[in-house]
Design brief:
The chain is mainly beta. It contains five helices and 17 strands. Helices cover 8% and strands 21% of the residues. The structure holds 2-acetamido-2-deoxy-beta-D-glucopyranose (NAG) (2 copies). Residues 1-20 form the signal peptide.
Length: 346
Amino acid sequence: MHWKALALAPLLAAHGSAQSASMPMMRFSCSKLVIDRLDPLVTPGQVPSPHLHQIVGGDSFNATMDPAAHDLPAASTCTSCTFSEDFSNYWTAVLYFRARNGTYRRVPQSVSEGLRADGGITVYYIPPYDGKKVTAFKPGFRMLVGDATRTAPSGSDPKVCHRCMPKTGDASHVNCASPDSQTLPTGFCEGGIRSVITFPTCWDGKNTDSPDHRSHVAYPVSGSFDRSTDKCPASHPVLIPQVMFEVMWDTTQFNHKELWSESGEQPFVWSTNDPHGYTQHGDYVFGWKGDSLQRAMDARCNGDVCSALKVQTPEEAMKCTIPRTYVNDEIDGWVTEIPGQMAMAA
Ligand SMILES: *[C@@H]1O[C@H](CO)[C@@H](O)[C@H](O)[C@H]1NC(C)=O
Ligand SMILES: *[C@@H]1O[C@H](CO)[C@@H](O)[C@H](O)[C@H]1NC(C)=O
């Protein structure tokens, strides 16, 4: 079967009554930790990083995060995620709105259906559906999906895409297939814009990182979203949890014709200064305490409740925030340039 049809499974299973014991997956919210110009994976130590990110997870996040020295669970005192042993960090680009007069405003985030958080990211960890052993990440593990410099679509099997959300409910559960697109939606989205980032499910079994932060992991040779027929390439034989980010951008305050350009062109721009949508990306730095993620995977934990894990309330998770390291950018209110980017011609 084609992956697009099989891709129905993950989001279907994640939503309420459709949840099925045969397709368990963890789905939980990680509230906003900080919005900052930092990128310890791609530009470690650099303050500010080239573009603005929204970051969630453990509060040991900082500009450097040297994999040899930075022990996330030991250095963290809290996490903005539901599972309180998860001190990992997760981050993506930030969405901006460009008004008719050429000024920009950061688009606020909202929380996914059925969860409670202050914006942030809904994180999935999806094991194979057929009961196969899945190997949790090792300390120091990190990876990157998407490309902040991309100027064209990524081909027939995208891993980063957008959906124009209906006011309530979800039009379809198919991930990265129609109605999703690699480009940003062209009209008003009553329920905001959702962006989904899907990470690889196969690991080389040796390296916790690679120079491009990608080569140590791979997508399966068939069924990229289908965890029932995952077949890893020989070079990357170890099945790992499928990490997926779901980010909801609340664009509703901008759904006014008079705010959009006269030509009606879609006005949203990623913090990479990308008005097309190709550069959204997701960064992951593993930081689960001890064997907690392995236990959760072995127990096939489902949703955001798991007897194998410690859980905190959304209120506790929302309390975990950190101050910005790079404070020179204006990140609220109307601005003439996206932080770190040159203004586009009007
Ligand atoms: C980042 O955090 C680690 C661990 O707490 C610490 O050793 C390091 O000095 C911090 N780096 C920066 C740039 O703050
Ligand atoms: C630009 O447009 C926005 C939205 O209408 C408005 O709030 C803002 O004040 C305007 N800025 C300038 C400099 O005109």
